[in-house]
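Quick review question:
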């Protein structure tokens, strides 16, 4: 809607073309420009295109508008809030065509900017999409830095929390180590006491064994002595029996015995005989 057509040559030999725009419009004007190079169409693929104009006050400028390209045609929708910020006439408007380090500009054309009867006019100023882009990049960078700072603060908070957890864990580890040391000492002391008791019991058992061995040896000796006494007693009994038999044989048939007393020196002797003396 409200498309105005231009034919522009990058040789800049032409001129006199004009586009009329009005203050207060919002994307109300579209410029369709056919671009040539000494009369030959220019292939605009891979080029960046910008609309540039010095405002009617001859002080400020605007690099404004959204431009697209197709073949050799530039289509640009005007941003009136910037390009029409100053009412009046200027013949210093053109398109800049950029690719890498190469930059061209078209022949100049005029802008007739109609004043708005309704809109109060803000003080004139320059407008530059590239500057706006840089400002936007700066704002984005600030936002990113702010976000980064927030992230840094969050990371620092997490680091502090992690450090607190580490200190707590270290304290728990030290407490566990202390308890383990106490348990080890107690276990060691208990083991040493048990070992001492075991050694004492072993020594007692050893002494008991020695005493038992001694008692056994004494018992063996007593048994040997008893055996020897038994042998002697048996021998005495045998001798006594033999004597009894002998005595029995010597007794008189009438079963009478007679006793005689004899004194030899200071000793008295008693003698049993089987016949009357």
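Suggested answer, residue by residue:
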């Amino acid at each position: 809607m409200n498309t105005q057509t231009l034919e522009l040559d990058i040789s800049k030999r032409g001129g006199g073309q004009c586009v009329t725009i009005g203050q207060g419009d919002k994307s109300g004007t579209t410029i369709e420009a056919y671009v040539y190079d000494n009369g030959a169409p220019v292939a605009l693929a891979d080029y960046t295109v910008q609309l540039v104009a010095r405002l009617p006050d001859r002080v400020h400028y605007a690099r404004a508008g959204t431009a697209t390209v197709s073949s050799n045609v530039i289509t640009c929708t005007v941003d009136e809030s910037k390009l029409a910020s100053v009412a009046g006439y200027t013949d210093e408007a053109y398109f800049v065509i950029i690719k890498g380090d190469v930059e061209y500009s078209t022949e100049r054309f005029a802008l007739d900017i109609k004043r708005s009867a309704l809109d109060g006019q803000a003080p004139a100023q320059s407008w530059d999409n590239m500057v706006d882009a840089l400002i936007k990049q700066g704002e984005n960078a600030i936002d990113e830095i702010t976000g980064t700072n927030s992230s840094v603060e969050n990371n620092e908070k997490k680091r502090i929390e992690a450090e607190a957890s580490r200190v707590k864990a270290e304290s728990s580890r030290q407490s566990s180590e202390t308890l383990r040391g106490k348990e080890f000492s107690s276990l060691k002391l208990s083991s040493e006491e048990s070992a001492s008791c075991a050694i004492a019991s072993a020594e007692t058992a050893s002494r008991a064994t020695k005493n038992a061995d001694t008692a056994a040896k004494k018992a063996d000796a007593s048994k040997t002595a008893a055996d020897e006494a038994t042998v002697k007693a048996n021998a005495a009994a045998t001798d006594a029996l033999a004597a009894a038999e002998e005595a029995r044989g010597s007794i008189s048939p009438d079963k009478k015995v007679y006793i005689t007393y004899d004194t030899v020196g200071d000793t008295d002797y008693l003698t049993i005989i089987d016949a009357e003396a």
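Why it works: The mean pLDDT is 83. Residues 129-250 form the longest helix (122 residues).
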